[in-house]
Design brief:
The structure holds 2 protein chains of 2 kinds. Chain A has helices at residues 2-26, 61-71, 113-119, 143-151, 172-182, 189-193, 210-223, 228-238, 247-254, 268-272, 279-300; strands spanning 31-39, 46-54, 98-101, 104-107, 124-127, 134-136, 139-140. By secondary structure, chain A is α+β, with helices and mostly antiparallel strands. In chain A, the strands form 2 sheets. Chain A has a 5-stranded mixed sheet. Chain A has a two-stranded antiparallel ribbon with strand order 6-7. The chains are: A alpha+beta, B alpha+beta. Bound molecules: flavin-adenine dinucleotide, iron/sulfur cluster (2 copies) and FE2/S2 (inorganic) cluster.
Chain lengths: 301, 673
């Protein structure tokens, strides 16, 4: 393999750098021990790797991963490729950086090292989410999260984007009700925590084209549980004065296979949502609306 | 012919609004983005979006006033017709976003609520909690998902734009992009390409921007022949929370809702800020700018904060520059309702409740006013001709730029809450022109010979493979990025000096050379973030160079670009006659400077990615340039003298013997002044 020779060639440098800097800081600086569950690609075996990072004030898990990338060698000085992870905003608003930190699913950017060290003074443990297929290391494939939004038609079906004047008048109470639901950043924490949400990993068949694989994947998504975030989005739009006009379509998908009846009401989801979205309230509302709708449909037949 | 196929690169507000409009008009859209579009940087915008509204209108506001504030705030460095069109569209855009379900804050009666932002005296800013950008982006993301479900838009998320593909005539026929998971490099034939890739904050290392804001995409376009305008105009936001990985923004809305900026009068007063009595606090913005107070335009607030810390030595802390931003006098209920989101950010990252303890903040790189040069076609009424293929088109036919990555709307300084507007506007407005441009083409790009695309793909594959194959280099790309960021932050942000800029330019050239010796710690071909980062780092140098060179050559102060050596101080005399005499000299100098420097900087890359700089005249046909006098000592006298001059010029122009110069300028000067 080509990779091996470079790794060996570079290792001398990395080790001497490390020793030198380790000596410099030994007396003054603390280190943070990090354990990362890595996986080189889909379908491959995962393995633990240990890293040691000098402690800095106000560090979060993102800065830990940045330092790991910069160093690119393990605790014992073995050169390794940087750990792969997703992030973008670094202020908990984009939903990219979800991972399992010290056993709990959360956003890496708001996981502050000081707080983590209180939970466990020995080390920080990073794992990818388990309900989504691993792409590499801490990066997982969350297409299913977005697919669920399509399922429940989480949008307002406007007539077109040409000017038609303002939207409906909305009371401050309604706005205050809708706003929290509308801050859902599709991070997937609620799905990771949900006992009813199980992993779907579709492996490409040799004879299959990328398009065919995509169709098979979507079909699988369609059969399984949509998740708390999608139920909550359906409620967001069903409560909007314009969105309401298509409430029945949304209720229809909520009550179809993989819909709200899958929810076992374990309420794990609401406990982990980083945006404190009242998911159980949405689920309860959706449940009631679905029941009423089902009865109505029965009578309409 | 088949439907036109348009490639949109970037799914922030600009890219999404263009995609929606294009799909609606019948085009097929390929939408590519480094991250799932719902995670684009636009979600970070907190404060709000500007437009005239029915309340401000009754207080004397108008689209024209919004235009005037934007131009004056931008120090006249932007072409005026596009800004006029944008401010005219403002109310319609807010209405549209309202219809899309954006949960704008409401008044008790159920109308949209508004707040005041910097650089204006009206409450023009609509907002949705403290996450307006997120809410606007989600609304557009939802519409795009709807079109995706209908098969009109195909998303390519986790893809990196590498280069535009140009045919022999120089027209853009598509682009080459790379899959960030499989690392596959692939051509996307397209009848037109729209770049909506956002800002380039990472050139400055840490900024308020998101991690994908590397500027890589614009740099690649620039290196392939697109011109770059006003690169040296970088907005440094006055109030950010210093952090190790990122400088997190504290939105201007904190001041909009009554937040006050101060420092203790005693240097590094160690007392708890809450125990420092009013008389021992220096509310320096309010003292120096009584009219705008804490809401002076950003460039001024930034310089004042920088100045009070570095020159007056009044930084709150000794080892770290910062000032207080105080909300503690405001009601908790109001703060939670209107600023909840941003206060949570402070609390989450600093572990301190800003409702109880004043926040510590300092300026940070925030926005790039400059960007790819784009064209426009002016209409008879002074705005833009709707549907013209020229609107938002770069100098490369068929290649468009919209959103933060164009240079069009904000001149030398952007007003708060104007960017979300310009992003959505440029996306919506560009779409019909793009389709008209395509309609004038004899064939579809998909019918172009395959070799056109193959050679571009091949070139990119070679670059990629060469990077992976580099051996034994000593440079670490992450460390080199930090070095670049520190250098740029030190020399090309708040205060600029020619000696430093020239030295920095040379240093960047050396760093670019050193980049050749970066070796990768990951040489694999699966989700290799190491090689993607190293590539984008390589593309930061051409941008850094054009920013530095533009700044070096521009020997004046304008908006965010401040060179103390060229600043024009206020009036020293105290007697009226002396004051008027000084004001006259000041106005002479101002006129000479306007003549010399009221021009956009245009950078064109040579074959090594080095900038050749030229200048472009600015269309000031609507509002004649006038001195920007926020808070200048003797500003009132200067204004008086200036108005007198304008009136005289106006009078002279009305003399029948004289040929009219340009009718619009003369008659509008009254309105503008
Ligand atoms: C913290 C913060 C707060 C702000 N608050 C406000 C505010 O209150 N009001 C206001 O008006 N403005 C505000 N702004 C400015 C405003 O948010 C941005 O200017 C605006 O969102 C930019 O939108 P955009 O669509 O141009 O680009 P972005 O939202 O940055 O999107 C860029 C898109 O391009 C994609 N992309 C980039 N490079 C590539 C590539 N190489 N290949 C493929 N895709 C690529 C990205 O994935 C992304 O989808 C704020 C900015 C910041 C940093
Ligand atoms: S309440 Fe429903 S959605 Fe939430 S965790 Fe439990 S089963 Fe899952
Ligand atoms: S509901 Fe909460 S946890 Fe679930 S995706 Fe949305 S923000 Fe994340
Ligand atoms: S990086 Fe955006 S949520 Fe953490």
């Amino acid at each position: 393999m080509i990779g091996v020779s470079t790794k060996n060639a570079a290792s001398g440098d990395a080790i001497s750098n490390k020793n030198q800097s380790a000596k410099d800081r030994k007396s003054t600086e603390r280190v943070v021990h990090v354990r990362v569950l890595r996986q080189d690609g889909p379908g491959q075996a995962s393995y633990w790797e240990r890293h040691e990072i000098p402690y800095e004030l106000n560090m979060n898990v993102i800065s830990i991963l940045q330092r790991i990338a910069q160093k690119s060698c393990t605790q014992d000085g073995r050169p390794v490729p940087p750990v792969a992870w997703d992030c973008n905003c670094l202020e908990e608003v984009c939903g990219s950086c979800t991972m399992v930190v010290n056993g709990r699913t959360r956003m890496a950017c708001t996981s502050l090292v000081d707080a983590l060290l209180v939970e466990d003074a020995q080390e920080i443990e990073l794992r990818p989410m388990s309900k989504f297929p691993v792409v590499r290391d801490l990066v997982v494939d969350r297409r299913r999260v977005f697919h669920a939004l399509k399922r429940v038609q989480a949008w307002i079906p406007i007539d077109g984007s040409f000017d038609q004047g303002p939207g409906p008048r909305i009371s401050p109470d309604e706005q205050q009700d809708a706003y929290p639901l509308s801050t859902c950043m599709s991070c997937g924490c609620c799905l990771e925590a949900c006992p009813q949400y199980t992993k779907i990993e579709i492996v490409k068949r040799p004879e299959e084209t990328v398009e065919e694989l995509g169709i098979r994947r979507e079909a699988a998504f369609h059969r399984e549980f949509m998740g708390a975030h999608a139920i909550s989005q359906a409620m967001l739009f069903n409560n909007h004065p314009t969105g309401r006009m298509n409430a029945e379509e949304r209720l229809s998908s909520l009550t179809s296979q993989g819909g709200i009846q899958m929810c076992g009401n374990a309420q794990n989801c609401v406990a982990v949502c980083p945006k404190s979205i009242p998911l159980t309230r949405s689920i309860a509302r959706a449940g009631r609306a679905a029941t009423v709708w089902a009865i109505k449909k029965l009578f309409d037949r | 012919m088949t439907h036109p196929r348009i490639l949109v690169i970037g799914g922030g507000l600009a890219g999404l609004s263009a995609s929606m409009r294009l799909a609606e008009a019948g085009a097929d859209v390929d939408l590519i983005s480094l991250v799932p579009v719902k995670r684009s940087h636009s979600v970070c915008a907190q404060g709000g979006i500007n437009s005239v509204n029915s309340v401000t209108r009754q207080q004397g506001d108008s689209e024209w006033m919004h235009l005037d504030d934007t131009i004056y705030g931008g120090d006249f460095l932007q072409h005026q017709p596009p800004v006029k069109e944008m401010t005219d569209w403002g109310p319609r855009i807010i209405d549209l976003m309202d219809r899309l379900g954006v949960p704008f804050n409401r008044t008790p009666e159920g109308f949209r609520d508004h707040r005041r932002f910097g650089g204006t005296l009206y409450k023009r800013t609509a907002f949705a909690g403290a996450t307006t950008g997120q809410q606007l982006l989600y609304a557009l993301d939802e519409q795009v998902r709807r079109w995706e479900a209908l098969g009109k838009i195909k998303k390519w998320e986790f893809w990196d734009f590498l280069e535009p593909v140009l045919d022999d005539s120089g027209r853009c026929r598509g682009a080459v992009c790379q899959d960030l998971v499989t690392m596959e490099i692939k051509a996307f034939p397209a009848d037109a390409v729209i770049l909506a890739s956002g800002g380039c904050g990472l050139v400055f290392g840490r900024s308020t921007m998101s991690m994908v804001c590397t500027g890589g995409a614009v740099s690649r376009a620039y290196q392939h022949g697109a011109w770059y305008g006003n690169g040296e105009f970088i907005q440094v936001h006055p109030t950010a929370i210093p952090g190790a990985d990122k400088l997190r923004l504290m939105s201007e809305s904190a001041r909009g809702e009554g937040g006050r900026v101060w420092v203790p009068r005693t240097p590094q007063d160690i007392r708890d800020p809450r125990e420092i009595p009013e008389s021992q606090r220096c509310y320096f913005l309010e003292e120096r700018y009584p009219k705008y107070g804490n809401l002076v335009p950003r460039d001024i607030a930034t310089r004042e904060i920088f100045d009070i810390c570095t020159n007056d030595g009044l930084s709150v802390e000794k080892d770290r520059l910062c000032v207080y931003l105080d909300l503690t006098h405001l009601s908790r209920e109001m703060l939670d309702k209107k600023l909840g989101g941003i206060l949570e950010i402070y609390e989450k990252f600093q572990g301190v409740d800003p409702r109880v303890v004043p926040m510590k903040i300092f300026p940070a790189v925030h926005y790039s006013m400059g960007g790819l040069w784009v064209d426009f076609q002016k209409s008879a009424s002074g705005g833009l001709e709707e549907g013209s293929p020229r609107n938002q088109q770069t100098n490369i036919p068929g290649f468009y730029a919209i959103g933060e990555c164009d240079y069009q709307y904000h001149g030398a300084n952007r007003l708060g809450a104007n960017s979300l507007l310009s992003c959505i506007f440029s996306g919506l407005f560009a779409a019909p022109g793009v389709l008209n441009s395509v309609a004038s083409q004899p064939n579809r790009s998909a019918e172009e010979p395959a070799r056109l695309f193959r050679s571009s793909v091949r070139r990119q594959e070679e670059r990629h493979e060469a990077l992976l194959a580099r051996r034994g280099g000593k440079e670490n790309p992450y460390a080199l990025h930090q070095e670049l960021g520190n250098l740029m932050t030190r020399t090309a942000t708040v205060v600029r000096r020619n000696d430093q800029l020239a030295a920095a330019y040379d240093e960047v050239c050396q760093m670019e050379e050193r980049w050749q010796h970066c070796s990768l710690s990951d040489t694999g071909n699966w989700t290799n973030q190491n090689v993607v980062f190293t590539k984008s780092l390589g593309d930061m140098f051409p941008l850094a160079k054009l920013i530095l060179k533009g700044a070096l050559l521009r020997d004046e102060c304008r908006g965010a670009h401040y060179k103390p050596a060229t600043s024009m101080p206020g009036i020293a005399a105290t007697d009226p006659a002396g004051q008027r005499a000084e004001a006259a000299v000041w106005c002479d100098r101002f006129e000479a400077n306007t003549k010399r420097w009221l021009k956009s900087t245009i950078a064109k890359a040579d074959s090594h990615g080095n900038p050749n700089i030229s200048y472009e005249e600015i269309d000031t046909s609507l509002i004649p340039p006038r001195p920007r006098l926020y808070g200048l000592v003797g500003g009132d006298v200067i204004e008086e003298v200036w108005k007198q001059r304008q009136a005289n010029a106006h009078e002279a122009a009305r003399q029948p013997a004289l040929p009219p110069i340009t009718g619009g300028v003369a008659s509008d000067s009254i309105k503008g002044s």
